[in-house]
Amino acid sequence: MSHATAEQLADRARALLRELESRTEPLKPRDRLQIPAQDMPAQDPAVRRSNLQEVALGYTAEQARVEALRCLQCKNAPCVAGCPVAIDIPGFAAAIAAGDFDRAIAVIQRNSILPAICGRVCPQETQCQAPCTVGKSLKSVDRAVQIGRLERFAADWKRARGEPETPAVKPPTGKKVAVIGSGPASITVAADVRREGHEVTMFEAFHKPGGVLLYGIPEFRLPKEIVRREIATLEAMGVKVVTNFVVGRTRSLTDLKTKDGFDAIFIGTGAGLPKFMNIEGENLVGVFSANEYLTRANLMRAYDKGKAHTPIYAARRVAVLGGGNVAMDAARMAVRLGAETVHIVYRRTEKEMPARVEEVAHAREEGVQFHLLQNAKRIIGDDYGRVRAIECLRYELGEPDASGRRRPVEIAGSEFVMDVDTVIVAIGNDSNPLIKQTTPALQTTKWGNIIVDETGKTSLDGVYAGGDIVLGAATVILAMGEGRRAAAAINAQLRGAPSA
Predict the structure, then answer these.
(1) What values do phi and psi take at 123, rounded to 5?
(2) Where are the domains of the chain?
């Protein structure tokens, strides 16, 4: 990660852009390969440890243009094949390179309604940037064209110039569609179905819509104002948003169809049931799932101690168990909530860690300590039932397991104790079983994920599903891809065409 200031990075980009524009001959592929990847300006680590403001500050126009000029405009566009919603990446990169930012965002929005969000939180390094010809030519995915940062730039440029235009909606069809959940898959479905003129009602269990974008991802990675604007756009299109509505409790799935008259239903409830390790001491005071910890901090604003009335555990020494993006979010939030020391405990090495490289680097910069090839064996309590330590085991890596990563193997007799007063378990989530429990005919896997066909249709007529409730914990852009596919099938069903 670069430690140059935002001003220094901007100055370098301005100078480089002037040099590139002064050339009399068009840039050739070898010239483009020599342009350095543009670092993302970021808040100083010492400053951001004590605020919730966004860490990554975004490209300037000059930085974005220089980065976009690195694109080789490959005819086969392998980056597009790596994008779950097939954005025309060379098209919007060429527009940015030319300084036509309006055209760039228009190209993106043909396929994605959430570019400001995806540009911030999606793992481009394992999706569109992984097959980038520039990265492969330079033998480093880190030096691929920074597609996500360019997407964010275009979206932010558009937003800075006023509220985005409301997508056009066709005349009313008289058909009604229920969308359960308000995360990225549901937002995509609601927009695509509403565009066709169907009446759409979105049901959200929490008191605010946005799903995992709101409760799961911290403000310092995804400002909540961006999520609020996306929901406001849906409402401007005529989507009705109903909060505090738990399908399976407030109303059953069957009732929505038979009593409320919805012609189609989309289930996008995500994977919100946290997994635990089933080790001794997980019932002690001071043990939290990452879901609860982040929901209290993000959705309920527990960090705003002067205004919010949400209680949150006062932690001094925190251990976060896990190595994904959620673990990084929880650890970095603990830093901002005043913990003196924060430890990531992960049973593989950093190479196998599923978290984004950028998030790991940001956590390190903020003082989070990493304990690799280690894992908690039990949580130790004091006489009052509160956490006082964890007993850990050391590991070594064996042969690859089903995930393709090398399997961690315990080292016998390697136990040691780490003094902590708070443990946050961030090892993944399962699907909430509530809808399945109240709709027995809905087919699911043994893990509770809803089974769908290639169109997103479930075992029930007129009922579709997508996102984490189908995939398990995945990414925003994958959820959007699922939503787009299901929306196309719903629209086909409602106009009487074959959905497959």
Answers:
(1) -85, 70
(2) 6-160, 176-272+431-494, 275-428
